């Protein structure tokens, strides 16, 4: 729940920021000189990109949470039995062992979104966020085509 609250708070702050930046862009355009209009248009592009990025990220999180809920209902969520360091971080060797199992599971069933979801969790535990995101995107895409 804490993660949802902090995500919503961050998104709200970003939306306020986008509105402020957008209003500055409009003011620059209203000034009417070639330089201010050029800067105004450039400034307006930033909130557009930011809103798009925020929307895509929110969509990704919502879809991943839907898959997690479905997998949980099936009893297929991966169990977190990883060893931890005194700091609370996951032990790298432990994460690598689980990753090897998840990778083999995914290679055996490459069209199963459940295996890709579990692989994404293993990537995340191994601190490989870009690959975790790609694996989760694959799981989401496979789930959508299975529907």
From TrEMBL:
Keywords: Membrane, Transmembrane, Transmembrane helix
Gene3D superfamilies per the UniProt record, alphabetical: Tetratricopeptide repeat domain (1.25.40.10)
Listed transmembrane segments: 7-27, 33-55
Stated name of the protein: Tetratricopeptide repeat protein
Highest taxon of the lineage: Bacteria
Matches recorded under InterPro entries: TPR-like_helical_dom_sf
